[in-house]
# Entry
Amino acid sequence: MMMNIRKNIKQWLYGKCPGFAGSFPYYGTKVYFPKNSLIFKLACQQGIYEQENLNILSSLVKPNSTYFDIGANIGLMSIPILQQDDSCNVVSFEPSPNTYNFLNRTAKSSQFNKRWAVISKAVGSQVGTLDFFIASPDMGAFDGFHDTKRANTNNQIEVPVTTVDIEWETLGKPKLSVIKIDVEGAELEILKGALNCIQNEQPSILLEWNATNLKAYNCPIESLIIFARKYNYELYSLPNLVPVLNVESLLLHMIKTETFLLFSTSKYT
# Structure
């Protein structure tokens, strides 16, 4: 009960209290967020946002490497990685105008600003521009190239699109240990635009694979299995790291989770 009271106080203090509302401390960093942000509310409720996924990411990001956080929102899956290892660089991608300015403000004012780059572009299979559906600022976690109907994303804008390969090459092809992808259904498109990087670096890839989102993209669920086999990755469901060996088991795991890990089988052979 006391824990719930503390969570409620934290949510009120940083969410509504004059003089405090609009930012909150997270891993020693002041994080800015849109009013009534869903991600902020989840962080208050969970204590550590998506802790089980974060623990896996933290174990996979290697010293002196780079981590790509694609669909970074307000940065809660970037900050802990920066905090745990001062030799790690993070590149966060966030195209939504509802969220980018808050993320960029957090990064620029943080103690990690020299190791933390924020890119205001969407990531896809090729460079260009695409239509982008946006919800109200508090529901920015559901913004994406297609309207998945998971939030009221009636507004449509055009955003610049880059690829993992282009950004990796622009950075000088650094050692890339992990890619996190949470983009409301466009995960496969991002993988298609990352093939050169993937074949050279074999990064671990933590991604969302949600049936509702995939339907909006006409993306077959089995595409993830096909990709894993083609590029020598093993597929695991999270948080328990259970191997996913075929389409049937993938469908079963998707009943319980929407988060999966692609782990290279050739990187350690």
The chain has a mean pLDDT of 94. The chain has one domain: 50-264.
